[in-house]
Amino acid sequence: MTRKKKIAADLLSALSGRKPLSLDLYVEALADHEAELKASLNKDADDALLCMLADDGDVAMMLIDWDGSIYRNENALQKLQVMWRHSFDTNVQTLLPLFSTHISQKNLGMAGIKCLPTSLN
Question: I want to staple 63 with a disulfide (CB 3.0 to 4.6 A). Which of 4, 29, 54, 76 is the partner?
């Protein structure tokens, strides 16, 4: 299995809840970026920022909400599921190739999230 495919498989396992998210990886690799990523969310005017990392089978994630709230690992996954309600699976499939490419190049997998208003009909 190529590195990108392995990363994508690990990310999918974590996002689907089949694999626990790693607190150790979060602390080692993502925690130090919280303030910087929070500031970048304000600059980009996104509704949220999703950040993920996979390393040796472990996966960690962070979601920063528009109000600056930071959600880590399982809390981030729960918040993402609420935000994406009916489009969760589609959005995950869209982001997996992008994130696996970023991570395979030794970067964090990141994406700004814009929320569309829901229809009242």
Answer: 76
58-113: pLDDT as tens digits: 999 999 998 999 999 999 999 999 999 889 999 999 999 999 999 999 999 999 99
- Containing H/E element for 9? helix 3-15
Burial bucket for residue 67 (CB in 10 Å: 0-12, 13-18, 19+):
exposed
Global pTM reads 0.90
| Nearest one of 24, 16, 45, 26 to 108, comparing CA atoms | 26
Q: How far apart are CA 24 and CA 30, in angstroms?
A: 10
**Measured distance CA(85)–CA(115) in Å, rounded:** 11
